[in-house]
Amino acid sequence: MAPLLAICPIQQAEPDLTGVAALAFTSRNGVDAFTALSGERGLPVFTVGDATAEAASAAGFASVRSAAGALGDLARLLSAEAPGPVLAPGALQPSGDLPALLEGRLEVRVLPVSTAS
Q1: Which DSSP string do the residues of 24-51 spell out, in sequence order?
Q2: Which is deepest, 21, 39, 50, 67, by most CB within 10 Å?
Q3: What ranges do the domains of the chain cover?
Q4: Which of 7, 17, 6 is nearest to 90 (CA)?
């Protein structure tokens, strides 16, 4: 069976992490693309599910928390536990809007790091 989509990293400079207190990942692809761009592994990481948390841990992040669910679960976890502004590396066209879910509660910067082709 052939996959319908190919995930491609977006080539860019190392991300500016000034003021970022945590990272939020919604997929393994986001973890892979971000770690190819940045050597940062010290920030706490919050993930939408356990598979993404496992990918983040395998990539060298020491502090990883999984929402074990969907995007709304990740938003609730971030709202309760994120220590400050969050960078959300992910798809150029994400399937959900994490910043909107956290509007007025937590600053979320989106960083497109991959696209589907």
Answers
A1: EESSHHHHHHHHHH-----S-EEESSHH
A2: 67
A3: 22-116
A4: 7
Partnered with residue 78 across adjacent β-strands are none
C-beta of residue 34 within 8 angstroms of C-beta of residue 15: yes
The tokens for 30 are 């986001």
pTM of the model: 0.88
Three-state DSSP class for residue 1: coil
Q: How far apart are CA 31 and CA 58, in angstroms?
A: 10
Instruction: Express each pLDDT in 22-79 by its tens digit.
Output: 999 999 989 999 999 999 999 999 999 999 999 999 999 999 999 999 999 999 999 9
Architecture of domain 22-116: 3-Layer(aba) Sandwich (3.40)
Residues near 85 by Cβ (< 8 Å), separated by ≥ 6? 19, 20, 21, 22, 106, 107, 108, 109
